[in-house]
Specification:
5-stranded mixed β-sheet, alpha+beta, about 30% helix, about 140 residues, single chain, Aminopeptidase
């Protein structure tokens, strides 16, 4: 088997995803919350990436249907690969896996948001064909 591979995450992967998410975002979402969200979400798709048969990264995407658009809208919302597995092609496999799944659901374009200063992420997204658009993202904590 290839050193890197990707599959859908399920509730049984909650412990691995909790460890990865803590490395990515810091402590917060519990293993139980992750398992519950993987069971009930109708919009989020979560891919789990493996390097040398160990859970080493994940990516999340949303497929949203709106009254405003004839086609579903897609967004790649999260992407993380542990440092030891970087440079092995796992991030590109995670992106490709989610793109294919969303394509099959009718999504024709996918949006990604990342920080201006996150040069490694920007370089990766550009490498796989994403183009920078002139949008301003505003947020508000509720």
């Amino acid at each position: 088997m290839d050193a890197c591979y990707v599959r859908w995450a399920g509730p049984a992967d909650a412990a691995s995803l909790a460890v990865l998410n803590t490395a990515f975002n810091g402590p917060g979402v519990s293993e139980q919350e992750i398992a519950e969200r993987l069971t009930v979400s109708h919009t989020e798709r979560v891919a789990l990436g493996f390097w040398n048969d160990l859970p080493s990264g994940f990516a999340c995407a949303q497929c949203l249907h709106s009254i405003c658009y004839t086609e579903p809208q897609g967004e790649l919302t999260e992407l993380f690969v542990i440092e030891q597995a970087r440079g092995q092609g796992l991030a590109m496999k995670l992106i490709s896996f989610l793109e294919q799944a969303l394509r099959e659901e009718g999504v024709k374009s996918l949006r990604v948001t990342t920080g201006n200063a996150n040069l490694p992420a920007r370089k990766l997204y550009e490498k796989v064909g994403y183009k920078t658009k002139d949008y301003l993202t505003l947020s508000k904590r509720l």
